[in-house]
Amino acid sequence: MKKILIFSASIGNGHNQAAKAMQESLAGKGYSSMIIDTLEYISPTFHKILLESYTNLLKLSPKTWGRIYHNSERSRFFDMNVFMNKLLANKLKKLINSVEPDAFIATHPFASCMLSVLKGRNEWTMPIYTVITDYTIHPSWINHHINYYFIAHEQLLYLVDIYHQDNKKFKPFGIPIMKKFREPVNEEEVYKKLSLSPSRKTLILSGGGLGLGPMEQVLQGLEQIDQPLQVLVLTGVNEKLYAKVSSRTYRHHVIPLRYIDNFHECLHVADLIVTKSGGLTTAEVLSKQVPMIVYNPLPGQEERNSHFLLNNGCAVYAHVTEQLVYFIQELLHNPTKVDYMKRMARLVAKPDAAENICRFIMDDLKDREKQPADIQR
Q1: Within a 13 Å sphere around the CA of 221, how many CA atoms are in the beta-carbon half?
Q2: Is 189 in the same domain as 56?
Q3: For helices 335-348 and 279-288, angle between their N-to-C axes, nearest 10 degrees
Q4: Which of 129, 181, 274, 359 has the fewest CB within 10 Å, making it most exposed?
Q5: Above 90 in pLDDT, residue 210?
Q6: What pLDDT digit, counting tens, does each position of 13-48 carry?
Q7: Same domain, yes or no, for 161 and 237?
Q8: pLDDT band at residue 68, thresholds of 50, 70 and 90?
Q9: d(CA 142, CA 112)
Q10: What is the CATH number of the domain that holds 261?
Q11: Rounded mean pLDDT of 281-310?
Q12: What is the pLDDT of residue 1?
């Protein structure tokens, strides 16, 4: 049985979700795999500091994060490879040597970089496959010794040329999502489970896994809409937001939800979603063809994701709450535009990404078995 190590990082929930989707697909094909939270495994203390710093930066100064992201598109602030060499990567090496995997999958740039460093240092022949989890390609994902990159869409291949990379290494199979997003759903049971009425329009407000964004401000803006709505507010791990929304009364039926594992069911009954356009969320929403209103995306990767959605007609972009309320009302009363957005989502969605990536990896591993060891790297 083939063994594959999947390296993720708990910096943004999407990387872990992509890792789980890959593990699910690999298991369905008889492959054994293990997910490693890379930074947590190497140094829980460093991971905690980095995660808290990143979260606080996004909450307190998202523009600063945007400047870091955009500046590092042009040139890295420091040589990540040198940094990772000094970051206790030997602990990762011990794990890898004990498992003796046949291949690696990385769903976070830190993980991809660490594996690249270790492979170069130890002259391993096992292939590294990097899954890029946004609708863009940031240079931090690109490292030496990576065999293949799986990107969100063919439209991103122009970035490969800009970065002067080997086009053959980049496969536009999509962002991997869980199998449940393409399976049938019992609609009646979902309405009952979520305490929703089939006769009302359903809106999702999503702030990502961290529950970021001006949710309370949006809910206040929805008070202007006369048409009765039911609103699922996804607060993620943001307990303060959950408590605030839970303690208030609204003219609409507002249901706050903590971190959930049935997002696919929420999407199935939703008429619209207001989202920050994180990479995994975007892939999941596209798979269900729910019209999107992008509001308050983070400068950087979410901003890039929103550009992809707007360019393909799958979303509209609201700059202020008043514009957001206008778009909600327009889409609720404009079935022609909604149908167009759904149709465009269907054209760019890649719900079978995990399956197609797994199939490619399986074929590649079979091909490598036929090659001499000295050319497998």
Answers
A1: 18
A2: no
A3: 110
A4: 359
A5: no
A6: 899 999 999 999 999 999 999 999 988 888 777 777
A7: no
A8: confident
A9: 8
A10: 3.40.50.2000
A11: 95
A12: 77
Q: Could you read off the pLDDT of 145-185 as tens digits, one per residue? A: 999 999 999 999 999 999 999 999 999 999 999 999 999 99
Task: Provide the residue range defining the domain that includes 102.
Answer: 3-177+352-375
Distances from the Cα of 235 to the Cα of 209, 212, 242, 259, angstroms: 7, 8, 6, 7
- Tokens of residue 177, six digits: 């999502």
| Degrees to nearest 5, angle at CA 13 with 324 and 273 | 25
Number of domains in the chain: 2
Residue 376: how many CB atoms within 10 A of its CB? 14
On whether both 40 and 147 belong to a single domain, the answer is: yes
**Residue 136 and residue 192 in one domain:** no
Q: Is the pLDDT of residue 84 over 60?
A: no
Tell me, yes or no, whether 267 and 295 share the same domain. Answer: yes
Return the bridge partners of 33, or none.
Answer: 4
The two three-digit tokens of residue 276, written as one number: 């920050």
- 54 and 173 inside one domain: yes
286: nearest Cα among 154, 151, 135: 135
* Token reading at 75: 């040139």
Q: Do 160 and 304 sit in the same domain of this protein?
A: no
DSSP strands (E only) in the chain: 3-8, 32-37, 103-106, 128-131, 148-150, 170-171, 201-206, 229-236, 253-258, 272-275, 292-295, 315-318
Q: Which residues contact 168 (CB under 8 A, 6 or more apart)?
A: none
Residue with tokens 């990502």: 208
Residues 52 and 116 in one domain: yes
- The one-letter code for the residue type at 177 is I
Nearest Cα to Cα of residue 228 among 199, 195, 191: 199
